[in-house]
Amino acid sequence: MKVDSTWTPNLPLSRLAPEDAPRVVERPAALGQLVVVILTRNEEVNLGKALVSIGDRAPVIVVDSESTDRTAEIAAAAGAEFVVHRFVDYASQRNFAIEHVAERFEWLLFLDADEELTDEVWAEIDRHCARDDLDGVYFGRILRFFGHDLRHGGMAGHAMLRLMRPGVSRYDREINERVDDTHMRIAYASAKLIHDDRKPILDWLVKHVGYAEREATAYLSGRDDSLAGFSLRTQRSRTIGLRWAYNRLPLGMRPFAHFARTLLWQGAYKDGAAGTVYAVLQSLWYPMMIDMMIVHRRFRGEAAALASG
Q1: What are the pLDDT digits (tens) for 95-108?
Q2: CA 71 and chain centroid, separation
Q3: What is the pTM of this model?
Q4: Looking at the predicted structure, is the pLDDT value of residue 276 above 60?
Q5: What is the DSSP letter of 26?
Q6: Which of 168, 33, 30 shows the shortest CA–CA distance to 95?
Q7: Phi, psi of 246, rounded to the nearest 5 degrees
Q8: Beta bridge partners of 64
Q9: Which parts of 155-271 fold into alpha helices (H)?
Q10: Within a domain: residue 173?
């Protein structure tokens, strides 16, 4: 199945070609093999193309955070199961989804509403789901930004555990959440998801202000000041060490170090103007927003209260 790049939120899924229109696959009473879970909050712009990229390959469950747009309508048109769950934080929302499917499916694939699955990704999913010696699979992403596919920079080397056995998988950390893969048997896929957010750039900026607020809270609470769980064996355990080291750098200087690493070492400049602009936003503006919030909240005397809480 080719990725449908022409879908718009005003095009009903029923108007797609029959062979492309997504539908729920009937499953026997026994444990199903795979379910795709999509977390949503006002994703009418993106959800349809994600559902089309799934098609009839697997049943879909949409876990929604009280959307007020046409998200529910689009999910219903695709025959997806639609579950509303009040949002607390990202780890809690994903763990709710895991618990919701754990007794029904052997494998769970998390797909963001602004992502799409390619034929190559599906081939890897099929191959890994057939294995008995595996608990989870990491997938990288190709970021589509202003019409350009970014293959360098921070996104190029960033992989996330998306395919997992729900019985052994749990997320931790409220923001930039990761699966605790310490005791999991994991693999890395060579095929990559397509990340193509069709929302206006203003939505991206507003969303990242919210992310920055949560990251500032995590910093001030001291939750990332420990090396507990650090090792070199898994990506999640390595990230604990990287985050600890990053937090040792001076506030206000950290974003410039992050930006230099993304632009030069990870080669974001190789993706031209689009790659450079995205690196400025993701690796300089966003981290600087976090640091500004930390300094401001310290000035207001919030740090001690968060640390004691």
Answers
A1: 999 999 999 999 99
A2: 18
A3: 0.86
A4: yes
A5: P
A6: 168
A7: -60, -40
A8: 40, 84
A9: 201-221, 235-246, 254-260
A10: yes
